[in-house]
Amino acid sequence: MSLSLEERRTFRSSVDGLLSARASIAEGRHLASTEHGFDDGLWRAMAELGWTALLLPVELGGVGTGMAEVRVVLESLGERLVPGPFMSSAVLATGALVDAEASADVTSWLDRLGDGSAIATLALPLIPTLGDSCLWPEARLAPGGWALSGSVPEVLHADVADLIIVFARGAGDEDDLVFALDRKAIPHHMDSFPLVDQTRRMQTVRFAESFVPEQMTLARGAAARELLRRADLRAAFACAADSLGGARAVHAMAVAYAQERVQFGRPIGSFQAIKHKLASMYVDLVSSDDAVYEAAEQDDLDSPGAIRLLRSAAYHALEAYPRIAGDAIQVHGGIGFTWEHDAHRYFKRAWVNRALFAGSERLRDAVAAELFSAPVGA
Amino acid sequence: MSLSLEERRTFRSSVDGLLSARASIAEGRHLASTEHGFDDGLWRAMAELGWTALLLPVELGGVGTGMAEVRVVLESLGERLVPGPFMSSAVLATGALVDAEASADVTSWLDRLGDGSAIATLALPLIPTLGDSCLWPEARLAPGGWALSGSVPEVLHADVADLIIVFARGAGDEDDLVFALDRKAIPHHMDSFPLVDQTRRMQTVRFAESFVPEQMTLARGAAARELLRRADLRAAFACAADSLGGARAVHAMAVAYAQERVQFGRPIGSFQAIKHKLASMYVDLVSSDDAVYEAAEQDDLDSPGAIRLLRSAAYHALEAYPRIAGDAIQVHGGIGFTWEHDAHRYFKRAWVNRALFAGSERLRDAVAAELFSAPVGA
Amino acid sequence: MAVVRDTTDAYRERVHGWLLSNRPEGWREQLKTASQDEVVSFYRDWTRKLHAAGLLVPHWPARFGGEDRGLAEQVIIQQELSRTQSPRPRTMAIALGHAAATLMNHGSPAQQRLIAGILDGDVWCQGFSEPQAGSDLASLRTSALPRGDVYVVNGQKTWSSFAAHAAFCLLLARTDLGAPKHKGLSFFVMDMSLPGVTVRPIRQATGSSEFAEIFLDDVEIPVAWRLGQEGDGWRTAQTTLSSERVIQLVELVEGLREAVCTMAGEAQVQRTHGGQPWAQSERFRTDVARIAIDVEVLSAMTHRAMGNLIAGESLGAAASTLKLFFSELLQRATQIAARMSGLGGLHDPGEPPDLGYTSGDWFSDHLRSWTWTIAAGSDEIQRNIIGERVLGLPREVASQ
Amino acid sequence: MAVVRDTTDAYRERVHGWLLSNRPEGWREQLKTASQDEVVSFYRDWTRKLHAAGLLVPHWPARFGGEDRGLAEQVIIQQELSRTQSPRPRTMAIALGHAAATLMNHGSPAQQRLIAGILDGDVWCQGFSEPQAGSDLASLRTSALPRGDVYVVNGQKTWSSFAAHAAFCLLLARTDLGAPKHKGLSFFVMDMSLPGVTVRPIRQATGSSEFAEIFLDDVEIPVAWRLGQEGDGWRTAQTTLSSERVIQLVELVEGLREAVCTMAGEAQVQRTHGGQPWAQSERFRTDVARIAIDVEVLSAMTHRAMGNLIAGESLGAAASTLKLFFSELLQRATQIAARMSGLGGLHDPGEPPDLGYTSGDWFSDHLRSWTWTIAAGSDEIQRNIIGERVLGLPREVASQ
Fold it and tell me: How far is C229 from chain A (nearest CA, A)?
C-alpha cells in the first residue's frame, strides 16, 4: 500500500512531532549510561503511532506501507542519533518474518512485534554466502527439531530481543536454515560488545547444543538463501537511511557554526575554504538523499535494476556519512573535537553504519561482480 | 664521482644557460612538424657541453657523474618541453651499456654516444618479467650469432637511433638475452606511433629472422635480467625527473596567471578556491622534488632501501604531474583549454611519462609485493 | 514522479523498435573520419528523421511541433537512443534546448516562427562568454546600443559551440553601459548571416574545433529580435537555462551508463603491465563499480529533478548540484578508462570531430571533461552558488 | 646533507644495542590500561634513562646537557627507537622541543637553568590557543599587564597538551591592549604552580583527555620570566617553532613506517566480508603500498629539511608543506587501517591514555588525526600561508 502525498506529509510531521518532543540529541547522550541504552517510553510511543507495524501487511493487522515510510522514520532517528531497536526489530526482523512463509507460531510473534510488545532482532551472517564461515552456527537434526551450536557475532540489541532470527548451516548433508529463536526458551550465552557509537548496543550470542523446535524453522535451502538475500538488501537500505539522516543533521550543524563563528573579523563561512567544503558536503548529502529516496520509492528487492539502484544508493550514503561527519569536525575546529560536542557522535555512528552487516564494501563488490560477469559489450 | 656543491651550481647554470638560449617552449611547438621532431643543433650543443657523457665513466672518456646531474638535465628539459633523444640515448641506453660487461665493440659505441655523434635507444619489455609476453621478440641460435624475430613496440626515438638495445627471449631452451643492434646493419621494419604528446617520437620495430652477430650480445640469463632490472629503475627515475620539471613549469604558469587574471574585480589568486588549489599543487610539487632529489643523491639501483625510495619518488612524481597539469588547466579556465596555450602540452607529456615503460602502476605494485611478501610483523 | 514511472511500456517499445530499424549503421566509425561540415550535416538529417517519426520533441506543445506529451517520454527516448546505440544530435543541443525553450517562454510570435527551422535542423549557438568575462559572466562588455529601430552591436564572444555552423545566436549584450553588472544586459536572437558577424573557430586542447569566437563589428540587430524587455536580459537568459541543463543531463547520464559497459568490455581485452586483462584486477573492477554506482546515483538525481520539473516545481540549486556531481564523475570515469588504455590510448587523434563526452577515445574524453569543470559556471562558481544561495553562507566581503 | 649520510654506522649500532637491552618490555600493553598519571610517570622515568645513556639530546650543546653532536644523531635515535619498538617520551615533546629551543635562544641565564629540569623529566605545555582565537591566533585576548615587577595575567587558554601535568607553560599573552593583533603580545615562562592557575582537562572525541584548558585569574608572573622583549612575543614564540615541528616529524615518520608494517601484518589475519585475508585483496595491498610510498616521500622531505636545518638554512614554507603532507597522509593511512578492522575495530576504548598517532587502535588513531588537520594552524591556514608567503598570491581583501 502506498500513501498519498498528503498522507505522507502527515506521517512525516507526526514522526517529527514525536521525536522533537521526546528524543533530543542530548537525551541520547544520557541514555548511553542506562542498562539497555534506549528509552522504553519512547519505544512504546512509537509503537502506539504504528511505526513498528509499518512493514506488517494489513491482513496481519499492520499498517502495510513500505520502505518509503520506513525511510522517513529511520532518517529521523538518524538525524537525532536516537538509540533503540527500531531498525533491528521493526525493519530487519519484521521484514524477514514477513518474507518467510510463516507458520502460525511466527504470525503470533508478528502481532507482538507490530504492537511493540515484543522486540526482535536479525543476525546476518558476516560472510554473505552461507556455509563458508566457521563462525556461523551449525544446526544438527534432533528429535522434534534441531540442536544449535556455535556463535552469532555482532547482533544488534540482542540483549532486549525476545526473538532472534538466526541463519544457520545444516550439519552434514543438511541444507542451510533460518530459525526464529524464542530467546527465553532457547539456552544461550550472551557477551556485550561495546561500540564507539554509544547509541548502538550489540551482543555476541553463543549456543551449545541448544534445542530449537521444528516449528521455529523459517526457511530451508533455497528459501533460506532467498530470505538472506532480501534481508541483506533491506539491511543495507536501513543503514543507509539512518546515515542519510545523520549526514543531514551534522552538515546542518557545520553550516550553522560557519555562519556564527568569527575569525579574522568575518564569519568563517564567508571564506571559500569553508564555503566550498560545505558545498561539497552538500553535494554528497543531496546525492545520497536523491538516491535513497528513489530506492525507497521503487521498494523492490527483486528486479535487477532496482537492486543495482538500491546497492548504489546504500553504498553512496554509507560512504558519504563518514566523509561529511569528518569534514564537519574540520569545519568546527577544536570545539568539534571535544567529547561534549556532538560531531564525534555522528562520526562514530557513521563508521558503525558503514561497518554493520559485513560492511559497505559488499555492496560495491556485488555491483562489480555483476558488471564483470556480464558478456562483453552487453 | 660526485660534484661539489659549487661545481653542481655551475653545472645547473650552464644547463639553464643553453636551454634558455636555444630551447624555448614555443620552439618545441614548431619542431612538432619537422621530420624527427627535435633540434639537431641543440643536440650537438648539448653533446659539446658533455651532457651526453654524464653517465659515461671517466676511464671511458666520460664525465662520470651520476643521477644527480642527469636529474638536472632531465628536469630542465621537462620544464621546457624540449623534444629529443636525451633520455633514451644519454640516460637509458648509455646507462644500460655501461651496466653491461662490455665488449670492445660496445665500447666503441659508447665513445660515439658520449660525444653525441651517435644516438641509441632502449626498448624495455612492456611486461617486466622476460619470457611472458608473446609480443616480445625471440632469438634463435644461428651460425655466428642469432636470428631475431618479432616486434618491439613503443621504442622512443627509434627513427634516429643508430643503436637499439633490445631484450629478447631465447627460443627453445635458450636463456633471455640482451642485444645492442646496429640499426644500419640489421634488417628491420619501423612503424611510427604518433603520440598525443607531440614532443615525443615513438616507433614499433619489427624483425623477421634478422641476423645479429654474437659480439652484439650484451648479456644472457641472470645477467640479462639484472640489466633489465636496473634499466627499468633508471627509466622510472628518468621519466620522474622529466615529470618533476614539467610539473614545476606548469605550476608556475598557473601561479602567474592567477596573479594577473582579474574576475569579480580581484586577481583570481586572491580567492581561496584558487589559492588553496595552487597551494595543494605546490605540496604535490615540492614533495615530488624532495623525493626525486633524495633518490638522485642516493644514486643506488641495488640496495633495497634505495630501490624503495627510488620507486616511491618516481611513482609520486609521475602521478603528481598529471594532477598538477590538470589543475593548472582548471586555474587557467577557458584559455588553458585552447590549442595555442601550453597547458595541454604539459598535460599530455605528463600522461605519456606516466604510461611509458609499462606505466607507473608497476612501481606501486612492486612496493606492494615487497610489503606483503615480508614476514608478518617484520 | 508517478508520471515518469507510469508511462506505458508500449511507448518505450515503439521507440525501441523504430530506432532498431532506422538508426544509421556504423555511424560512429563513419563520423570519426568526417569533417565538421559532414558531422553537422549528418546530425541535421538525423534530427529531421527523428522529428518525422515523432521522436525528437514529443514533450513540446503541439502548436510548436510537439505532441503535448510529458518530459517522461523525452526521458524514454534518451534511454532508448542510448540502449540502441543510436546517434544523438549533439550539434542541435542549444537549438532544441535553450533556444527553443527561450523562444517558447519569451519570444514574440514572429520570433517563435524560428522554432520550425529548429525542427528542420537549424543549428543555434550561444553568445555568452567573453575573453574578459569567464567566471564573472555579469561583467560582459559587448555592447548593443539602440539606434533607430536597430541595436548596433560591437564586441567579442568566445567559447560558442558550433558557432561556425549556426544560423542563429542567443546573444547577451549590454544595452545600458551605465547600469551595474547584470542590470544593463539585454538578450537577443542574432541572425548569424548579418553583416559584421565574423566567426573564428577555436582549436581546443583535444585538437577539435567545436568552439568558436564570434567577432561583432557594428552588427545591426533589429529591435524586433530582442528577447524580453530591455535591461532584463540576464533574467530572460537564465529562466529556462537550468531546466534545459537538467534535461541535457538525462542524455549525458545515459552516455555514462554506456561508457561503463564499454569499459567493462574493453577490460576483458586490454592488459595491465603484469600481462593480465584489466578485468582480472580487483582494483580496476572496484573502481569501475564505483563509477557504475555513481552513475546510478546521478540517474536518481536527474530522475528526481525531472520529477520536480514535471510537477512544476522550481529546480533551486539542483542544477548546480547536478553539474558538480556530473563533471566530477565524468572526469574520474574517463581518467580510469584512459589509464586502462595505457600508452596505446595516448595515440594522437589529430583533429578529430567532437563525438561527445564519452566517445571511447578515453584520453581525449578525459581532457574534454575540463570543458565541464570550467564552462557554463566553473566548479568553483557552482560551489559559491550552493554555499551562498542554498546554505545561506555570507558572501565574500569583496563581492558585496 | 653529507653530514647526515656519513654519520658512522657505529653510532647507530651503539644506539640499537642499548635500546635492545634497555627498552621496557611490554610497555605498550602496560600503558593501554594505565592512568594518565602513570603514563606521565612512565615517560618521565624513560626520559631520565635515555638521558643517562646519552640518547636523549646528544644534539644539544654540552653546556645545556647535550654532547654537541649533530641533528643527524637525533635522526638515528628516532629511527632506532622505532626499529626497536621502544617508547618515545610523548609527554615530553614540548619540553624537549619548543621549550628547550626557546630557552636556549631567548632565555636569560636564570631561565636557562630550567633546562636541567627538562632533562630530569619536567613536563612543559604551551599556552597559545584561546576559545575565541583558534585559526586566528593573533587575536589572543589573555592579558598580561605590568604592575611593579610582575605581570598580572588574566584570561583563558585552551588545547594545551598535558597541561594538567606540566611544571611550566610557554605562555603567549597581550601586554599592550592598544596595539593591533600580534604587535602587542609578549612571551612568558609561567610556573604552573602559581596562584590563580587552574587546569581543567578537555575530554576529546577519542575519549582521551590529553589536552586541557588553563584558566588564569590574576596570576602574577615575575618580569624576570618574560622571554625576549615586551611586545616581541609573537616573533619570539615563532623563531624556533617550525624547526621543532620538523624535528618532531622525524619521529612521526618513523611511527608511520612502523604502522605500515603493522597494517601489512594484520592484513594476513583480518578478513574481508568475503572471508579472505585482507592481504589477498589487490585493492588493499595497493592502498597500503601507496601509503608506504608516501611515507618514503615524506621521509625524503623531512630528510632534506633536516639537511637544510643542519646547514643553517631557513626552513621557509617547508614546515607548512610538511605538516600538510603529514596530516593528510596520517588521516588516509589510519582510515585504511580502520576500515580493515571492520566492526571489530569499532570497539569502545573507554577513556584510553593517548599513545600517539599510530597507536594501533586504528579508529581512535583516525579520529585523532583531526588534531593534526585542525591544531597548530589548520590545513586551511597552512594553504593560506603557502599561497600568500610562498607563491606570492594576493591576500584576501578582508584581511589586509
Answer: 34
Please report residues of C whose CB lies closer than 8 A to that of B348.
Answer: 346
On chain C, the residues whose CB falls within 8 A of the CB of B326 are 370
Closest approach of chain C CAs to the CA of D285, in angstroms?
A: 10
Q: Which chains sit next to B, with 3 or more Cβ pairs under 8 A?
A: A, C, D
For each of the domains in chain B, give its residue range(s) and CATH number, in order of start: 5-118 (1.10.540.10), 122-220 (2.40.110.10), 224-373 (1.20.140.10)
Partners for D (CB, 8 Å, 3+ pairs)? Answer: A, B, C
Cα maximum dimension of chain A: 78
Nearest Cα residue in chain A from B271: A272
D340 vs chain C: nearest CA distance in angstroms? Answer: 16
Complex ipTM value:
0.95
Partner residue opposite C300 with nearest CB, options A258, A278, A291: A291
Q: Which residues of B touch A272 (CB under 8 A)?
A: 271-273, 276
CB within 8 Å: D134 and A334: yes
Number of Cβ within 10 Å of residue C73's Cβ equals: 23
pTM of the entire predicted model: 0.95
Give the burial string for D182-202 (b: 16+ CB within 10 Å, else e): bebbbbbbbbbebeebebeeb
Does C398 touch chain D if contact means CB atoms closer than 8 Å? yes
Number of Cβ within a 10 Å radius of residue B8: 15
| pLDDT per residue rounded down to tens, chain B (378 residues) | 567 888 989 999 999 999 999 998 888 888 988 999 999 999 999 999 999 999 999 988 888 889 999 999 999 999 999 999 999 999 999 999 999 976 667 888 999 999 999 999 998 876 544 444 456 789 999 999 999 998 888 899 999 999 999 999 888 777 889 999 999 988 899 999 899 999 999 999 999 999 999 988 999 999 999 999 999 999 999 999 999 999 999 999 999 999 999 999 999 999 999 999 999 999 999 999 999 999 999 999 999 999 999 999 999 999 999 999 999 999 999 999 999 999 999 999 999 999 999 899 999 999 999 999 854 333
Over chain A, what HEC string results?
Answer: CCCCHHHHHHHHHHHHHHHHHHCCHHHHHHHCCCCCCCCHHHHHHHHHCCHHHCCCCHHHCCCCCCHHHHHHHHHHHHHCCCCCCHHHHHHHHHHHHHHCCCCHHHHHHHHHHHCCCCCEEEECCCCCCCCCCCCCCEEEEECCEEEEEEEEEEEECHHHCCEEEEEEEECCCCCCEEEEEECCCCCCEEEECCECCCCCCEEEEEEEEEEEEHHHEEEECHHHHHHHHHHHHHHHHHHHHHHHHHHHHHHHHHHHHHHHCEECCEEHHHCHHHHHHHHHHHHHHHHHHHHHHHHHHHCCCCCHHHHHHHHHHHHHHHHHHHHHHHHHHHHHHHHHHECCCCHHHHHHHHHHHHHHHHCCHHHHHHHHHHHHHCCCCC
From CA A90, how far away is CA A179, in angstroms rounded? Answer: 17
The catalytic residue among D130, D244, D254, D266 is: D244
C-alpha distance from A53 to closest chain C C-alpha (Å): 25
End-to-end CA distance of chain A: give it in Å, rounded. Answer: 36
Q: Does D238 touch chain C (CB under 8 A)?
A: no
Mutation choice for C interface testing from A283, A316, A318 by most C CBs within 10 A? A283
Chain C residues within 8 A of B195 when measuring between CB atoms? 343, 346-348
Contacting residues of D for C282, CB less than 8 Å apart = 281-283
- Chain B interface, mutation test: which of C343, C363, C374, C397, most B Cβ atoms within 10 Å? C343
Of D264, D292, D395, the CB nearest to B270: D395
